[in-house]
Amino acid sequence: MLLMNPGPVTLTERVRNSLLQTDLCHRESEFFDLQDEARARLVKLYDLDPAQWSAVLMTGSGTAAVESMIAALVPENGKLLIVENGVYGERISQIAAQYRIAHSIVKHEWMQAPDLARVAAALDADEAITHVAVIHHETTTGRLNDLKALASVCRERNVKMLVDGVSSFGAEEIDFAEGTIAAVAATANKCLHGVPGAAFVIVRRDALAAAASRTYYLGLVRLASLQDQRNTPFTPSVHAYYALVEALRELDEEGGWRARHARYLALAEQAREGLFARGIGSALPAAESSVVLRAYKLPDGVSYERLHDALKARGFVIYAGQGGLSKELFRISTMGDIHSPDIERLLVSFDELMR
Ligand SMILES: *Cc1c(COP(=O)(O)O)cnc(C)c1O
After folding, report:
1. Taking every annotated instance into account, which residue ranges of this chain make up the domain Aminotransferase class V (predicted)?
2. pLDDT tops 90 at residue 354
3. Is any atom of ligand 1 closer than 6 Å to the C-beta of 5?
């Protein structure tokens, strides 16, 4: 079965086999070697300086990393502005509300790009705002939000950015050097091709120094400081760390995030062109979409359930639209061990279905 849902992904045999390594106690030096390698490779993936940036690991799914980032990095007397244009932006607002973090929201329709003029006006109207939270790749629609443009709006106002990069880290460009991004949250089991269970926040060390402590298990500062001392507060998902490290080695050998971007782009375009030729249109223009996942319009008279079940019977798991989009859209991700002949077979399956 090929997984074309937005994570967990179809594993390579190499990553799958890494799960079969020896049982490991998380208080032994071998575990800390593994933890050190994962952290070092995560920082190196975007050529970051480990003296300035820390990769903080935790056990949980991508939402754990997002929650840890938001709960810690808006300081006690800080305020968060959340840019919402999909399910995941709305999730950050729910997290901020749950922790009683002062926040306001610039809300958009799910199909819309962030309106920079509205974001700028919201920042200008409220000097208390210290941070902006945004989703890099809004997986709801496949839209790649323009981090560069948003960063310049924030930089002019001396506001830092907290980025949900869960479905972009490892495959899309992220400009850490520009200085406005304070942290990016992500997970092992999307563009990195690991298994679910390990998540992480890439955070500037100076942002950690100003962080708040609002949560126990997901406390970012404590996780960071113990990991710097080759320690860990709790039992980590050891096997997920095995897979993460193996997946990061594989990614490095394949040429890093740029190579993964190029590979995903080719697959996404092959799928888009093939579906277009079969009368199935994209929900968004390619130039506004990520290379990771694209949303498509359901063909007239075909329900998602019928499409899903027919493709599943042929070995492909696709993904529904979320919420109100579930009757209009379906989504196809090209993360994981997916290659051009797989997309070709998928398109042939569509031919059979359309007949
Ligand atoms: C997948 C995803 C998440 C996290 O989902 P989990 O199920 O917790 O792994 C968060 N944000 C975005 C943009 C995602 O695509």
Report:
1. 25-279
2. no
3. no
